[in-house]
Amino acid sequence: MTTEHRSLPNIILCGTPGTGKTTLAEQLADASELEHLCMGTIVKEHHLHFGFDEKWQTYDVDEEKVLDYLEPRLLKGGCIVDWHTCGIFPEELIDLAIVLRTDHSKLWERLEARGYSLHKIQENNEAEIMQICLEEVRESFDPKIIVELESNSTDDMESNMSRLLQWIDTWKEDHVN
Length: 177
Description:
This protein is of the alpha/beta class. It has one domain (21-170): Rossmann fold (3-Layer(aba) Sandwich), CATH 3.40.50. The protein has helices at 21-31, 39-45, 63-76, 104-113, 118-129, 132-140, 154-174; strands at 11-14, 35-38, 49-53, 58-61, 79-82, 96-101, 146-150. It has a five-stranded parallel β-sheet, sandwiched between helices. Strands 3-4 form a two-stranded antiparallel ribbon. Helix 1 crosses helix 7 (154-174) and helix 4 runs antiparallel to helix 5 (118-129). Keywords: ATP-binding, Cytoplasm, Kinase, Nucleotide-binding, Nucleus, Ribosome biogenesis, rRNA processing, Transferase. Belongs to the adenylate kinase family. AK6 subfamily. It comes from Schizosaccharomyces octosporus (strain yFS286).
């Protein structure tokens, strides 16, 4: 099923943990017709993993199971996929790829507040500084559908929400039969 057969777009929302993906995705889902798919939760609840990696304090994701779970939803459209990674998703099923960016000192504070270990905070801060998520999105999707958004404050969140709601409305207008 191609884009022209869907009445709602699919958005992938990427970024280093702590950049505000879930907060933005939840607010966007509440304000639109799109469904928020929080992949971290889905991977755990639906056992889409091989097990928990104690050293890295994360699940070892089974990408095949993730794709089997997501593909029918993406084919239907209307999804906001909230995850730190994007390389496994079929490009033709994603209409907008968003990368949230946060100043590394602000990110450090957010991760400390979550109770992350020092190792995990350092790892995620390095990933943000090195633009790991942004580079993965650039390698995975057409530059025309990539948007990089700052996510340092509530003002940024409000601006991002407004911009994304406008984009959704425009997408729907452009794809009405």
